[in-house]
């Protein structure tokens, strides 16, 4: 009788042990994905969870959770090539509050001799192709889903593109992009650009997404 | 006999307080993470659910698209 009880107890602990193992593996996997979305290496999240299996216990992972919550995420930093002075929107201080994006930047110190323009190309859901040229003669372009009404309007005829959707700004050899609060969203190399981010330097970017339209950015 | 019931209630109350304190320690940073990801901070209140609450929050953050954007694969170091 006692043997049966012991066996049942051992079985119970075996079951809970299996649940604990599955839970730990699942948590480690999810932590990997979460920190990757923030721009950190996935193994840091995995390691934080696996630390609970060591003698350190759960205090260190708890501390790491707080650090992760309040640290600066690589996701929020400017794309490569954008860490230079750039576009500061009118009426918005360059060093002002910026909840999750990089600080707005000041005017460029000098213009280089590169006079090449920019080109945005992509395919529409309707089957059409869009090719937009930015030659830099106008300082500001408006990306809109409506037909072009002015020379500075760049039309992307797709229902997911706002009217207007975003603003392109040229300054010297650099190109900036500012979201105008469109519901479809604006993305730079996969990272969401919010209106409160202000103009972002996209000179080093390769892909822009307006709503559901993917555009490739290149020099002409 | 009554004192046993009282002791049991006291132990249960102590467990409840400990659970709430532990949940609070988890809710504060998770609230900020959820907000930065673009979700409602109230999502972190799932930590109040015993045992599976933390898994629910982590699953939401891990397997859904963050409204405020995610690091592009090329930028993940």
Task: Write up this protein.
The complex is a heterodimer of chains A (220) and B (77). Chain A is of the alpha+beta class and 220 residues long. Chain A has two domains: 2-72, no CATH class; 109-219, Tumour Suppressor Smad4. Chain A has helices spanning 2-37, 42-50, 59-70; strands at residues 118-123, 129-134, 140-144, 153-155, 166-171, 174-179, 186-188, 191-193, 200-201, 207-210, 213-219. In chain A, the strands form two sheets. A six-stranded antiparallel sheet of chain A has the order 2-1-11-10-7-8, with no helix packed on it. In chain A, a hairpin with a 5-residue loop joins strand 1 (118-123) and strand 2 (129-134). In chain A, helix 1 runs antiparallel to helix 2. The longest helix of chain A has 36 residues, at 2-37. Chain A is elongated. Chain B has 77 residues and is mainly α. Chain B has helices spanning 2-37, 53-63. The model of chain B has no long low-confidence stretch (mean pLDDT 86). The longest helix of chain B is centred in the N-terminal third of the chain and has 36 residues, at 2-37. Chain B contains two helices and no strands. The interface between A and B is medium-sized, with 34 and 29 residues.
């Amino acid at each position: 009788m006692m043997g049966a009880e012991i066996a049942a107890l051992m079985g119970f602990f075996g079951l809970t042990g299996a649940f604990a193992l599955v839970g730990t593996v699942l948590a480690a996997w999810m932590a990997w994905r979460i920190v990757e979305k923030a721009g950190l290496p996935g193994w840091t999240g995995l390691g934080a969870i696996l630390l609970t299996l060591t003698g350190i216990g759960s205090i260190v992972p708890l501390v790491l959770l707080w650090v992760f919550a309040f640290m600066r995420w690589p996701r929020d930093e400017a794309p490569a090539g954008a860490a230079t002075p750039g576009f500061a929107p009118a009426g918005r201080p360059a060093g002002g509050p910026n909840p999750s994006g990089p600080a707005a930047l000041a005017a460029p110190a000098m213009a280089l001799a590169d006079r090449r323009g920019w080109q945005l190309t992509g395919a529409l859901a309707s089957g059409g192709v869009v090719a937009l040229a930015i030659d830099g003669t106008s300082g500001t372009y408006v990306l809109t889903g409506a037909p072009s009404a002015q020379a500075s309007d760049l039309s992307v005829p797709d229902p997911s593109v706002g009217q207007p959707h975003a603003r392109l700004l040229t300054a010297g050899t650099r190109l900036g992009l500012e979201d105008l609060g469109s519901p479809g969203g604006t993305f730079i190399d996969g990272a969401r650009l919010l209106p409160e981010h202000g103009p972002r330097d996209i000179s080093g970017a390769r892909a822009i997404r307006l709503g559901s339209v993917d555009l490739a950015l290149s020099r002409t | 006999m009554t004192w046993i019931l009282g002791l049991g209630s006291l132990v249960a109350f102590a467990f409840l307080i400990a659970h709430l304190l532990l949940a609070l320690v988890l809710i504060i940073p998770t609230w900020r993470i959820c907000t930065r990801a673009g979700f409602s901070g109230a999502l972190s209140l799932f930590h109040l659910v015993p045992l599976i609450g933390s898994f629910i929050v982590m699953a939401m953050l891990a397997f859904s698209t963050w409204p405020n954007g995610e690091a592009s694969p090329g930028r993940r170091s």
